[in-house]
Design goal:
The chain is α+β, with helices and mostly antiparallel strands. It is built from 23 helices and 18 strands. A hairpin with a 3-residue loop joins strand 8 and strand 9. The longest helix is centred in the C-terminal third of the chain and has 107 residues. The chain is elongated, with a radius of gyration of 56 Å. The N and C termini lie far apart (192 Å).
Length: 717
Amino acid sequence: MKKSLGKSVTKKIVSVAIAAALILSVATTGVLTTSASDSTGVGLSAHALQAYNEHWSYVWGGASYGAVDCSGLFITYNGVGGNRTDLLGSSPEWGYVADGIPRIHGLGLHQPYHVGIYIGSGTAIDARDENSGVVYHDVYSKPWVEWFKVAGVSYPTTGWVLFDGNSFYYENGQYIVNTSRTLDGVTYYFDSNGVSNIAPPSSAYSQTDYSTATADPAPSKPESSKEETSKKPEPSKQETSKEPEPSYEESSEVSEPESSVEESSEVSEPESSVEESSEVSEPESSVEESSEVSEPESSVEESSKEESEVSKEPEKPKFVTLKEGDMDETIADAKITEVQQTLTKLGYYTYEVTGYYGEATTAAVKDFQAKAGIEVTGNVDEATWNAIFSESAPAKYNSYKSGDFDEKQTGIKDIQNKLVSLSYLTEGEYEEGKFDGNTVIAMQLFQSANGIEATGEADFNSQLVLFSGSAVGNPNPGAVIYGMSGSAVTKLQKRLKALRYTTDEPTGVFDDATLKAVNAYQKNAGLEVSKSLSAEELKVFYSDKAVKSEDYDNLQIGYNGSDVKSLESDLTKLGYYEGSITGEFNDELETAVQDYQKENKLEANGVADDTVRNSITKSIARQGSEKAQGIITDTASVANEAMSGLATSKTEKLSLEKEQSDNHLSNARNMLYILLGLILVLSVSVVAAMVRSKKRMTKAMKRAVAQRHANDNIRRF
């Protein structure tokens, strides 16, 4: 115990020594040149850059030289940062990265469960993890949510600073860019990163004005206005310069002789009386009156008592209600900026903090009042002010976890709608208003993509990022993921069954059995085995290019399809299956396959693989051949029987038929002779008629010739 205690003390001493050495090294190496207070934004930047250049390692909980975690990188610089577990909450000023990061070296950067340091010119450094150590990166390459001024750090307001060998010039709290300035007769040009083309005289750096550094965290807001109004607000610097408080030296000039002053200085609690009198409504007049009157010591004591009594019971100032149109610059004691900052932290105000009470501020106040159960007016009256700055101020975002149901369907519904718009959740695939399984998975995906611990719960920080302008959309939209449920999963399971990676009926839930089938497909398809299928992978999965299961052709119980139907038909033909032909491989079909396998000396496992189906095909062919041979044999037998039974009667029939045939033949012959005779007679008659006709024609021709000769002779004479 003593040994470990000694080590602890030694470590603390070493840490202090290292911190001192670090400050000295920064001052002597030329990385930072400034004569401002010990802890500056530029100094913090130089500290972070040194940690990066020296390759500091990441150690969870580490806050010593060379070994730090994310907040330890801050703490090792003069112990700045305030509450180590809530650097953002300790900050006096902050804003959203999505609205732009101020051009200030050494700002803190925050995202859920992590912080880093902005070192200017769009770059940042953070102690990231054990594998990465201290990382230098483009500030927008990491999903930072808020920037903040680090508690205990002083930032330049006006003047020159030197960082990493480059000169920057600050105006109005930020270094200038893309411009030029003529200072002390010299013109300087500043690029887009704010770096000057030439360095100023070394003395210029020490003349820079810095904001007041606060070693302690920013004071928390009071629960009520009682403490705030118990004392009159302190006068501004301008007011005190006009009306300085009277000192004891002033009162001694107008009072009685020195002895009187000494007596008055000996009254009870003189210093506290004067200090208290400076806080009451009319402190100066009471002191002047006591100094002008040369009363004895009792008079001074009475005056001090009266002042003390007044300071104990001051008049409560009237609260000034803030309303639309007000702005910090023109309204006395207005604290619109504080209201906007606090409402931003509570999640109601999502715009730039301007100090102007516009429509956005009014809407944010109304939302807060409704949530807090205060009369909704949109104005910050005393009751609203107290509620806003109360430790129990209600945040806009309630936390939700698996199974939660929002009766009003506002909070969870808003989350679901936002997750849909960012493509983490599919419309219609969740129960509206209920933080169901698909919503949990969508939230996990969102958290992973946005650098948040993937718990699946919609906590306040997750919703701040979700509803911010910097929320990152789903890098893998349309994927089906383990744990999901709904129609997309049902479709997946049906396809897995069609490809015969599973025989289970679709349930619509991506469970362990479905994951096993998906992994088998991924392995066969040459994909990375994981708990999801991406949109691109699903396109192939649902196409003809999808790789089938290795057991696709080994028909077994649970399979269905035309090939199963053919198996049922074949086994029915062989007499092994008597059920209905459905195409479903059921228990009855499995028994039929087993029976066939047993009778044919095959392994009786009930699976109809290629061997079994080929055997069945041969059996059917063999059965067909045997049936054909039986038909031929039966036909020959019948023929033989017919021939032997008709042999006797056939002879008698033939004799009778011959006799009848002879008679018919004789009759036919006689008829033929008659017909031939008639034909002959007819032919002779025709020939005779033709001869007679020819003779007549010959005679006619002769007479015509004789007549022509006669006519010719007559003409001659």
